[in-house]
Amino acid sequence: MKVEVEGMHFSYNGIGVLEGLDLTVRRGEFIGIVGPNGSGKTTLLKNIGGVLEPEGGAVYLDTEELSTIPIKEVATKVAAVQQETTVGFDFTVREVVEMGRFPHLERFERHTEGDRRAIDKAIEITELEDFSDRCVNQLSGGEKQRVFLALALAQEPELLLLDEPTSSLDINYQIKIMETVRQLQSEGLTVIAAIHDLNLAAQYADRVALLSEGKVKVLGKPDCVLTRENIEQVFGVEVEVEESEVKGSIHIFPKTGNLRG
Ligand code: ADP
């Protein structure tokens, strides 16, 4: 799915967060959204996913304007993993992942063989087989994060919106999840992810959008966007940027003791 954000405006209680933001995401592309805390990354994802409604501008999924697409249809095409999700009841991991199939079911319809395959695959990809009968509320933050990713994958979406997808994960799962997402991309999935770890964004995103003052300040390949100058200007911190040992990637590290007040 191709995504086009045109002139998006959004504010909370009259305080502007997104101020005429434009962004084009190609089908099968992984866009990393980076920017300081409070720069509007979550707000942008929620507007693209239809959770919030832009006050101005529009979002196009392929050629259709988001606000004209029935909610149920959006839910079959777009999946979102939010930063913090809570489950009100004592659902098991499998029950939560099964919820990913709801948009695909007609009223009162039972899961088909295809639904079960999607659920099993999502559980397998996120390595949750051993947890499937456990209550979600009894899992650690990182385990829960994998459950909600599994729910999103069970939806078999064309667009995956991830808000800090690996923030609670150890390095092993961080890499596994990013590699999984990359593999799904090669099957045509479009991914837009807010990532606070600039090195992770540099390694996995095809292009990076740097948010500042309610707009995309720069959009491009990670090494063109995550430059010393851009990071200093937007985050107010001095860094060194080096070519990474990982082919085609870069490594960013702060010059300690040089933080601006
Ligand atoms: P980011 O994801 O980049 O950290 P957010 O999109 O979460 O940024 O927030 C952008 C700005 O909007 C912040 O200043 C934040 O305090 C404010 N904000 C976010 N959600 C709400 C809300 N529900 N009500 C009021 N202000 C909000």
List keywords for this structure.
single chain, binds adenosine-5'-diphosphate, 6-stranded mixed β-sheet, alpha/beta, Rossmann fold, 261 residues, 4-stranded antiparallel β-sheet
Describe this structure in words.
The protein is an alpha/beta fold. The protein has one domain: Rossmann fold. Helix content is 32%, strand content 27%. It has nine helices and twelve strands. The protein has helices at 41-48, 71-77, 93-98, 113-125, 141-154, 171-186, 198-204, 222-225, 228-235, and strands at 3-12, 15-25, 30-34, 56-61, 64-65, 78-81, 159-163, 190-194, 207-212, 215-220, 239-243, 250-254. The protein has a six-stranded mixed beta sheet with strand order 6-7-8-3-9-10, sandwiched between helices. Helix 6 links the parallel strand 7 (159-163) and strand 8. The radius of gyration is 19 Å and the shape is globular. It starts with a strand and ends in a 7-residue tail after the last strand. Bound molecules: adenosine-5'-diphosphate (ADP). Adenosine-5'-diphosphate binds next to helix 1.
